[in-house]
């Protein structure tokens, strides 16, 4: 059974801080998704990666296949980044989701 | 195409009633997924389709749950004899499967979800 562990569960930071959210996953997961969920419940896919690093604006996602670890970084964080960030591992049996990291960026 | 559309957005029902949710995926997407999310938890996989074929079904999906995608386009998720434990957000996502990528390696587009409250 695929497993995905995320940390931290909750994170509060000041505007402008550099944010890192971590995700570890088990054998059998071939791709890693980072998702953003806002208070209304809508989910947006941020990244899907199976190797290396991807960048989109202030968001950066990295994955280390050997260590089975991925990180999501937010540079120059802003209150509008406040959301739940979910890591999901994709394998032959579909997606396995982490429990999410509740991020609050205070002005 | 405005993305993945789910209806209804909210449904309140009494225990024992049947409910049906509909998902309209992005038109060129051949894969469609259903997930369930309870408060404070990450989504849980329920089932997925490639075209009209239901390829996988989670053990979470009891025999009261049934999903269809009759023409390989929209999908319906029906819950019969609802229980209070069925209260959750039901999320639909779609993707375009290409080549030999596994189901988890496709970029997903999520709908806004259908929130079910069973009284």
Summary of the model, kept short:
The complex is a heterodimer of chains A (107) and B (119). Chain A has 107 residues and is an all-beta fold.
Secondary-structure blueprint of this entry?
The complex is a heterodimer of chains A (107) and B (119).
Chain A: E1 4-7, E2 10-14, E3 19-25, E4 29-37, E5 43-49, E6 52-56, E7 59-64, E8 69-74, E9 83-91, E10 94-97, E11 101-106
Parallel strand pairs in A: 2-11
Antiparallel strand pairs in A: 1-3, 3-8, 4-5, 4-9, 6-7, 7-8, 9-10, 9-11
Chain B: E1 5-7, E2 10-13, E3 19-24, E4 31-37, E5 44-50, E6 53-57, E7 65-68, E8 75-79, E9 88-95, E10 109-110, E11 114-118
Parallel strand pairs in B: 2-11
Antiparallel strand pairs in B: 1-3, 3-8, 4-5, 4-9, 5-6, 7-8, 9-10, 9-11
- What is Rg of chain B? 14 Å
Q: What portion of residues of chain A is helical? A: under 10%
Could you list the spans of chain A in which at least 5 consecutive residues all have pLDDT below 50?
none
Integer average pLDDT of chain A: 89
What's the pLDDT, averaged over the residues of chain B? 87
| H/E element order of chain A | EEEEEEEEEEE
3D shape of chain A? globular
Helix count, DSSP H or I runs of 4 or more residues of chain A: 0
Please report which band the strand proportion of chain A falls in: under 5%, 5-15%, 15-25%, 25-35%, 35-45% or over 45%.
over 45%
Ranges of chain B where pLDDT stays below 50 over 5 or more residues in a row are none
Largest sheet of chain B: 7 strands, mixed
Tell me the span between the first and last alpha carbons of chain A: 41 Å
Q: Percentage of helical residues of chain B?
A: under 10%
Structural class determined from secondary elements of chain A: mainly beta
Radius of gyration of chain A: 13 Å
Kindly name the structural category of chain B.
mainly beta
Count of separate DSSP helical elements of chain B: 0
């Amino acid at each position: 059974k695929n497993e995905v562990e995320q940390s931290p569960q909750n994170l509060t930071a000041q505007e402008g801080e550099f944010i890192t959210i971590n995700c570890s996953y088990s054998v059998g997961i071939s791709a890693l998704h980072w998702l953003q969920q806002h208070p209304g419940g809508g989910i947006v896919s941020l990244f899907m990666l199976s190797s290396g690093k991807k960048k989109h604006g202030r968001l950066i996602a990295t994955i280390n296949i050997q260590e089975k670890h991925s990180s999501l970084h937010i540079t120059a964080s802003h209150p509008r980044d406040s959301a739940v960030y979910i890591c999901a591992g994709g394998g032959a049996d579909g997606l396995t989701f982490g429990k999410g990291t509740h991020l609050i960026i205070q002005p | 195409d405005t993305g993945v559309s789910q209806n209804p957005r909210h449904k309140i029902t009494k225990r024992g009633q049947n409910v049906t949710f509909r998902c309209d995926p992005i038109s060129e997407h051949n894969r469609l997924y259903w997930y369930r999310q309870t408060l404070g938890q990450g989504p849980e996989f329920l089932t997925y389709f490639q075209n009209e074929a239901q390829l996988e079904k989670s053990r979470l999906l009891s025999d009261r749950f049934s999903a269809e995608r009759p023409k390989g386009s929209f999908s319906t998720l029906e819950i019969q004899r609802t229980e209070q434990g069925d209260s959750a957000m039901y999320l639909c996502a779609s993707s375009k499967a290409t080549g030999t990528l596994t189901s988890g390696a496709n970029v997903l587009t999520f709908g806004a979800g259908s929130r079910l409250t069973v009284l």
